[in-house]
Write a sequence for this structure.
């Protein structure tokens, strides 16, 4: 048995796997081998991968998306059946439970001969279901470029191709900001109640993924425009504009409810702006001016 642990978004996820895993470049700061006998820190989630002669049948009420069936078993436990492609039978099933101390217990059972589907770190995180784990731990995964400026985090969020990476690079050029992730960030409260943003091992085309964090000073929703202007968004606008940029199972009511609750809490405690902008220094100055004049939240 081989042992690995994820350190991601302030959480520790222990993994037990019957074979070695290739840790890909984007995961090198987040996933580490370890010796089980020397570990005594309680994990937030424990994932075990194991070979099985058969896996649970797919329930009739399961929801199919892409190459997976999502459902709950007869006891109400959440499960995901993984298929090699649409129309093919599942080769693995991931089952979610909770231990007596509130930790998540994740078991991925797979049929013999499918070990090659788990040989890389990205495959492991896909079969664990990071978006599910994050929501169960009150953590949002946001489609955003994440920078750190003067010790605080700024998240630029927008649909792909709207200019998240461009704005991040402008802040690096003109303000010396650190870019911690170019495409994804996790957002959750820390033990003190302050909202923190965390870099993730998903970076899109930017290739930037750092396992670092910063307290969130603002979330900025981007729209391309002929001139730079910025305004703070109201709650309804925040939900309308920010919810589509979260990673959530749109077909599962419980997931949607949890994501909306977290978004509402975030919006009540962190300023969220709409920046209509050009790809120039003026866009940086517009955001900088409202941050300098705004409330220091953490």
């Amino acid at each position: 048995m081989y042992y690995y642990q994820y350190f991601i978004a302030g959480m520790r996820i222990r993994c037990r796997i019957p074979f070695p895993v290739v840790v890909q470049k984007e995961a090198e700061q987040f996933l580490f081998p370890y010796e089980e006998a020397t570990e005594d820190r309680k994990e937030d989630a424990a994932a075990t991968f194991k070979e099985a002669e058969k896996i649970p049948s797919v329930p009739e009420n399961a929801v199919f998306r892409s190459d997976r069936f999502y459902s709950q078993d007869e006891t109400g436990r959440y499960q995901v059946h993984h298929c090699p492609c649409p129309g093919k039978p599942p080769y693995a099933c991931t089952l979610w439970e909770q231990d007596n101390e509130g930790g998540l217990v994740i078991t991925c059972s797979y049929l013999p001969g499918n070990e090659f589907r788990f040989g890389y770190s990205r495959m492991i995180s896909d079969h664990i279901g990071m978006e599910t784990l994050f929501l169960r731990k009150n953590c949002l995964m946001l489609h955003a470029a994440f920078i750190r400026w003067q010790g605080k985090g700024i998240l630029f969020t927008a649909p792909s191709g709207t200019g998240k990476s461009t704005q991040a690079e402008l802040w690096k050029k003109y303000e010396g900001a650190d870019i911690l992730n170019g495409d994804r960030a996790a957002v959750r409260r820390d033990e003190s109640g302050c909202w923190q943003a965390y870099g993730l091992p998903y970076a899109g085309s930017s290739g930037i993924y750092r396992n670092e964090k910063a307290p969130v000073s603002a979330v900025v929703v981007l729209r391309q425009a002929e001139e730079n202007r910025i305004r703070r968004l109201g709650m309804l606008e925040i939900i309308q504009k920010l919810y589509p940029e979260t990673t959530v199972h749109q077909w599962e009511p419980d997931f949607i409810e949890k994501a909306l609750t977290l978004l509402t809490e975030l919006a009540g405690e962190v300023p969220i702006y709409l920046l209509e902008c050009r790809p120039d220094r003026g866009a940086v100055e517009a955001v900088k001016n409202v941050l300098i004049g705004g409330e220091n939240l953490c």
In short: Residues 45 and 104 are 4 Å apart (CA to CA). The longest strand covers residues 213-224.
